[in-house]
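Example: Putative ATPase.
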Amino acid sequence: MAASRTRLPEDGAGPVVAGTGVAREGVNVHGDAPADVLSFRDLGPLEVVRGGEPVALGGTRLASALSLLLVDAGRPVSVDALTEAVWGADSPARSPSTLDSHVWRLRKALEPDRPPGAPSAVLLREPGGYRLVADPTTIDSRRFSGLVGEARALLAAGRPQEAGRVAEQALALWRGRPYPTVADEPWATAAVARLEELRDQVRELLAEALLADGAPERALLEVGAAMAETPLRERLWSLRMLAQHRLGRPEEALRSYRQVRAVLRDELGLEPGPELRELHGRMLAEDPTLAGPRTPARAGPAVPSPRHGPPAQAVAPPPAHLPHRTSSLVGRGRELAELTGLVTGSGLVSLVGAAGCGKTRLAIEVARTVAGRFPDGVWFVDLTAAGDAATVLSTVVSALGFAPTDTARPAAALRGSLHGRRALLVLDGCQQVLDPVADLVDDWLSGAGAPTVLVTSREPLEVEGERLHRLGPLPLPQGDDDVTSSPAVALLLDRLAAAGADREDLGLLSAVVRIATAVDGVPLALELAAARARAFSLDEIAHQVTADPSSLARTGRGSDHHRTVRVAVEQSYALLPDDEAELHRAASVLPGPFTVVAAGAVLGGPGAGSRPDTVTADLVARLVHRSLLVPLGPARPGGPSRFAQLATVRGHAAHAAGPDTAALRRRRDGWATALTLAGPPRGRGARSARFDALDDDLPTLRATLQHLLVEAPSAEGVRLAGRLGTFWCFRSRTVEGRTWAERALEVEHLADPVSAALVRLTLAHHLSSGGQDGLAVAHLAVATDLLEGSPDARSRTVAEVQTLLAHSLVAAGALEPARALAAAVATAARTAVGDADLDLLAQTCAALVDSGSGVLPGGRLTALHRRALALGDEPVALVVAGMAVVGALRSGDAPAALSWSDRMIAHRLVLGTPDGPVALELRAVATAMAGRPREAVRLFSAARTQAVRTGLRWPAFEETPDALRAVTAALDPGAAERARADGARLTLADVVDPTRTAAAPA
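Written out as structure tokens, the predicted fold is:
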């Protein structure tokens, strides 16, 4: 609904009253009035006064309504406009009676003594709306406008002293920004802007009156106070120069001109206007007419003369009409260089990225960098407030200072004026007006001699010839690199240093990394986080942004552009159709890279199941197009593409989801649980495919574990954790697997006995692998009791975890508990007659125990290995190959050990892990035995590095210390050190060709 628009008298004109303007209609300059007179103080926080006593309005809604009525005082205001003012443009439809009740309350506040049933004398009901009836002299804004007009008339009549007094009376009414709580509402912006402009004009008028009255020293003081708030008004600089000149300080006046010229060029890319240039020339010529108490020729504020195109270049360098930015551009050197090349070689470049990624800042810097290559100037057009084609066109026309002669066809006139000009136009914030901007730009580029256009948007324009540059967040620290080399960290440190923080403080650096990571390196979020450093410690800020980075908001004065992170994202969200908005909200429970399959799972409604992948993929692609999802590509060769919401976007999505979040979590948790609990895979590579599926959506799996084990502990969480043991093991995530098992152990009482036992068996395996055999055996004992008598105790899932634990116990020399596990698996195999998989596990456990006793023949292992391959059981084949390596080493057969090592490593690669400290350690011993000391040192270094990283026992093989000493001694110290450094970077794939077959030797 459209509110009534502001219509103030032109040029501040109002009721001009002869004399000084004091005490008209019984009201003095401060708004006091007799007891029965209402006064409205609206130049600052809205106040209503009756006889010097404040009137309570009864809430912000009534104050908003009264503000609109005051803006249109004396004119009818429609019901729709009042409804918008009271409840906002997006509020649900309300009945007229609801508004009437608020008007009744407002009348009660304004006329408390009005008899029941008597008509209101202040707030009248008229057809279609209401009208506020008030003497203009009782409304500060109207009195202010009248006083400004009166002061101007007095000065023009040659009465500067009286003009100065009236100007001071006008300024005495000013208490701050008019209607501050609603000043940015569409129906108030024009009125507020006009009043603020009048205030700036009357300050200039006062200084001019003082100069004309022979008081240059007072004029200089008034100008100084005004310049502190509005330093870009050229009229103030002219008055300052004239006051300094008349005070006998011509050198200061000339210095002021140099200062204003520098300010205007730095801030706006403009040269001083004609009034300043003329005054400067007259001072250089020592014009005698500048002296004395006289009214200077009033050229008024510099205004471009009417013309039929963008202002042409008048002086060198070319005009660069760009917003001024005082802060440095950090971390965008590569993008700046790339865009500079694109802009100078293309007709249309679109800089596209998510909200808050710094598109505007970068575009301004690009334009400033290339300004010298566009002799007809560089022009910045802010389209963030544009809403339709007409607004887009008028905004562009206004920014260019273009006055079309053909007012019936302004777009065609604009195109004609731009034709042949070597100019750069920066169109900023086009995402909400893509179609009108695309049409306009396409029209410009349709012929030769078109200007160059640089667009910032969250979506491409999709105009022919468009060169697209996607801008992401600033890169975060990677691996072991110096964290200060990260652009995200560098930006935050720069802004914190500006706020007074010590950049050398190591504690600061740690918190900075946490903050930068929590906001995904989004520049806007980093800037807003740094601004909080004056109020909070960095640890507090890190906690705040980790909880919800979208809550960051700008503090204090400054641009309203992206005042909060959440509002910046809301601008994109508001443009989404329903299905895309649904995915945006649903993805908030997928905190990290996710696949289309996971997205479809959380999109499924109650009882509806997951969305088809093709439907979800289309929605995902559209959100990527709108910069609300980030494409990350596959996590592995041949894997599915993954996507993510930036932390700032996810924060908005979570707020938008609101009460639906619980249902979304249930869908996510149900899908992750079903993926984990799927039946045991069969066939060569099936286990790896299952592990791949878990890895592809690992952040979603982690979120589910966090929810079901920590945030809302449940039996389902324990069940899930107990069945992930083999995944953590064969994907070299020992530390993480142990952590989740420990968390599940804290709530095992919620679960069934088998799930609790699986958790303990998994934890025992991790403990034993890490050298804590005593704790492992204690957990094994409890798990055995839990499994006693349960029919599910003899399942393949339980037997697999028991086999893993038996393997780690044998490696640690704990044969008795390993023998008990082998007996349990054998019992399960005998019970499940004909189950080849269980029988293989039983035979493998028995072989493990025998290998620990040193009585295992090689032919038995070869047969087991072939059986495992035939059944497609890669984990068992891996365990058997490891036993064969150990057997060959103990028998002194290096070639056989290396051959089995090839297969052992190949099995791990098939299972999808680049790490394998035990496999590398055994290969190192075999390589040492084969007489290759440098290679052995490399392999020992790789094994130790990976064991430390994954929390596994080092060394795991009893022959390792002697072999390591021998091969190290065989090399000179420098060669040994180089081999160790090289080995620390090795992976399994560097040792064995991953495509090599893992078949057993003949």
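Residues 575-659 form a domain with the Arc Repressor Mutant, subunit A fold (CATH 1.10.10.10).
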